[in-house]
Design goal:
The structure holds two protein chains of two kinds. Chain A is α+β, with helices and mostly antiparallel strands. Chain A has two helices and seven strands; from the N terminus they run βαββββββα. Classes of the chains: A alpha+beta, B mainly beta.
Chain lengths: 110, 189
């Protein structure tokens, strides 16, 4: 894993060497690179450029990931892309509702 | 901890947006050119309190909203200078707004949000202004008007410097100057 990446909690836990973390995450939380209280496997996290090592605390254990270099352009991991697409659908629905609300308000004030 | 927030309008050369500057969203005619109703900005500038074009000569970026779901697989579309493209194709350097948060000691950033409001009450959007924002890498814009509709930004792990690249585009729905405030909130720890 290289620095300057937008990824998910589950990918980081697996990279750290935790076995089947998805079975326990949610029942117990984890801490990744100083972000505490993570309970969702799909929790999005950016590992900024300049970071050389990440500390991961999970299920009573601490592991470290040594990062191998840095991405020049922030990379979005494949799993993060799926999460972002799902979030995007929600954003699109909210935007549509907002536009409808504005249209109704406009018609009311005419 | 003396955490510093620095904001830039990116471009050929970044223009720092200081506390008294305005980030101006303008029409195709450039600085101070109005945006037509229901159209989105064609140019973006930094305007000083003395009304000067601070970004002049820096070839500032512009992000123009094209569609909310018209792209591949329902992606949003935008134009950042190369014509209409899927939003998720934009690169960090092509976003208009760059926010850097830095300190000598490493810290994490969590629960970050960014939104537009009327400058008085954070829950209240500015009337008659459509504001679309996205973090680079997002597939869709968020209509981030008022704190309840904020764009949620990705948590960032511990580091001395954190960068957020924001795609931002605005459109007036009525005639007249629109002055909103863009606010970012986050927890640093």
């Amino acid at each position: 894993m290289r620095a300057n990446i937008r990824t998910t909690a589950i990918e980081i836990l697996k990279e750290a060497g935790f076995k089947s973390p998805e079975k326990k995450l949610g029942k117990v939380s984890c801490s990744i690179a100083g972000i505490v209280g993570i309970v969702d496997v799909n929790h999005l996290i950016v590992i900024p450029a300049g970071v050389e090592k990440i500390e991961v605390f999970f299920d009573g254990d601490k592991k470290e990931i040594e990062l191998v270099g840095v991405n020049k352009q922030r990379v979005v991991s494949d799993l993060a892309k799926t999460v972002i697409e799902d979030n995007g659908r929600e954003s699109a629905e909210m935007a549509e509702k907002m536009q409808l609300k504005k249209a109704k308000l406009k018609n009311k004030t005419k | 901890m003396a955490i510093a927030f620095t904001r830039y309008l990116q471009g050929g050369t970044p223009t720092e947006i200081s506390a008294t500057d305005i980030l101006q969203f303008a029409g195709a005619g450039g600085f101070d050119d109005p945006v037509f109703i229901t159209e989105y900005n064609s140019t973006t500038h930094v305007k000083t309190a003395a009304s000067a074009d601070k970004s002049s000569g820096n070839t500032p970026n512009n992000n123009k909203f094209i569609s909310q779901t018209g792209g591949t697989g329902g992606d949003s579309q935008a134009d950042w200078g190369d014509g209409t493209e899927d939003l998720d194709q934009i690169l960090d350097a092509e976003a208009a707004l760059h926010i850097n948060i830095a300190d000598a000691s490493a810290f994490a950033v969590s629960n970050a949000i960014i939104y537009s409001y009327d400058g008085v009450t954070t829950t209240d959007p500015l009337a008659n202004l459509d504001v679309r924002m996205a973090e680079v890498g997002d597939t869709n814009f968020t209509e981030a008007e008022g704190s309840a509709a904020a764009l949620a930004l990705t948590d960032q792990g511990s580091a001395t410097s954190h960068d957020y690249y924001i795609v931002i585009s605005k459109s007036p729905t009525t005639i007249g100057l629109k002055e909103d405030v863009i606010r970012m909130e986050c927890i640093v720890s």
